[in-house]
C-alpha cells in the first residue's frame, strides 16, 4: 500500500511541475486557477486528477474538446515511477531529486530555450539536504558563474547541472557523463538537417537516465 501511495504522490508532484513549466517565469503559478489554455474554462477537481482525468477525458478538454498534449501524461507516469522506485529502494532520495530536476529543466530547455535559475535553486537546495558540499561541486558552480559573464562555449546551465550531479557522482563518473553526453550530442548535431546551435544540457539528462 505504501508503494502505491508513493506512486500517487509522484504523479501529483508531476502535475504541479507541469503547471510550473507552463507558467513560470512569465506568469504566476498561484493565480489564476487551473484552466484550459484554449478556451480559458476553469477546471473542476475531476479534471485535475493525475493520469486518470486525462484518460477519462480522452486527452481532450472536457469543455471545448481541445487536445491535451501527451507530454503531461508521460511526465506524470515517469515521476510516479521514480517515486515508486524510491519507495522500493531502487534509487535514493538524492537520485530521485536529481532525475526530477534533470527532467524538469530539460523540458524547459527544449520548449523555451531557457534555464530558469529559480527552478534549479529549488532542486539544488533540496538536493543539498541529502548531500554535502564538495570541491567538485564548488568547481562547477564557479564555472557556471563565469559562464554568465563570459562565453565559455558551454552554457551556465550545463555547469550548474554538473554541480548538482557532483552531489551524488564522483569525479570519474562525472567525466564519463561528460564524454558520453558530448559524443551523443555531437552525433545528433551531425545528423541535423538545419545546422543551428545545440544545447548540451538535455543530452546530459538523457545520458543520466
From TrEMBL:
- Domain Prepilin peptidase A24 N-terminal intervals: 8-86
Identify the keywords attached in UniProt to this record, alphabetized.
Hydrolase, Membrane, Methyltransferase, Transferase, Transmembrane, Transmembrane helix
Residues annotated as transmembrane: 6-24, 68-85, 120-149, 161-191
- UniProt keyword Transferase, yes or no: yes
Where does the secretion signal sit in this chain? none
Q: Give a Gene Ontology cellular component term annotated to this protein.
A: plasma membrane
Biological process terms from the Gene Ontology for this record are: methylation; signal peptide processing
Enzyme Commission (EC) number: 2.1.1.-, 3.4.23.43
* Hydrolase in keyword set: yes
Tell me one GO molecular function of this protein: methyltransferase activity
Stated name of the protein: Leader peptidase (Prepilin peptidase)/N-methyltransferase
Q: What organism is listed for this UniProt entry?
A: Streptococcus sanguinis SK1087
- Mind giving the lineage of the organism this protein is from? Bacteria, Bacillati, Bacillota, Bacilli, Lactobacillales
